[in-house]
Amino acid sequence: MLFLVLAIALLGISTSGPLARLSEAPPLAIATWRLGFSLLIVAVPLIWTRGWRQWKGLGAKDLGIAVAAGAFLAVHFWSWIASLGMTTVAASVLLVNLHPVAMIAGSALWLGERPTQRQILGTVIGLSGAVVVAWGDFWGMGTVGCTGTDTVGCTGTDTVGCRGRELLGNMLALLGALTVAFYYLSARKLRAKLDVWPYVTLVYGTCFVVLLGFSTLTGVQLAPQPPRELTIFAAIALGPMLLGHTGFNWALKHVNAPTVSLVMLGEPVGAGIIAFLVPAIAEVPSVRTFVGGAVILSGIVIATLSPRARSS
User: Fold this and answer.
1) CA-closest candidate to residue 308, choices 247, 243, 259
2) pLDDT tens digits for 182-240?
3) What residues have CB less than 8 Å from 312, skipping those under 6 apart?
4) CA 300 – CA 312 distance, rounded (Å)
5) Omega prior to 224 cis, within 30 of 0
6) Domain interval for residue 297
7) Which end of the chain has the least Cβ crowding within 10 Å, N or C?
8) pTM for the full model?
């Protein structure tokens, strides 16, 4: 059951990058609508199971952790979705998945869950694969947005502007990696006290409020949205959020945070394949993507075979 949930969750988050790339809405609008639809979905099992009653047992510290988790998730969504318009799907998804380092360190210091040698080895191998795939984009070898019709500081002859834009996209993806690590560490802490539905509703709700605040402060127009955009937002809520994030949050009660983090490293492989198969994106994976993806998967296999990786 556990491995099935992890596999479905991995498939779910792998659709996030390609779906966000299809949208023409601002990053904050995508993230806000994504959380709004997600809250409507998770509210059904929350009410059905009466899971909201578990909130009564939370102390001020627990509520603070939940609010912080929601805020970290909001920054993660904004920074990562913004990066998708500045660099390639492969590079963005890979860089945002460099969270195992922060996850392992935080898990050991905050949760007292020290990684096994196999987990450390798997992490090193997985991160090495991520470096292989994203290496070229760090040096301006990507071509996202570098066309003669793109006027955002990136024309066909403006290679400096293109490289600067991709570098900013890479840095935003790295910020997304750091904040999602803190988010899942908080989830591991609270999942010992809350079932999955009351937990995700509390955190997703906080995240939604923070995103609404970001949108208001920056003047991003959230509505109205055309039917095409609303369909994309709903698909992101169903796939990456309900199957992906919620699935991983469920798993955090049964495995430690580094294990979930390592499984998430498989997202770039799935996202790259989906981005290639979707005609509207048709982003052909490079040789680096195939080689690095194989290395990442090898690291996941090595780490998840660890006996302690399967323990709660």
Assistant:
1) 259
2) 888 887 778 778 888 998 999 999 999 999 998 888 888 888 899 999 999 999 999 88
3) 253, 254, 255, 256
4) 18
5) yes
6) 2-310
7) N
8) 0.73
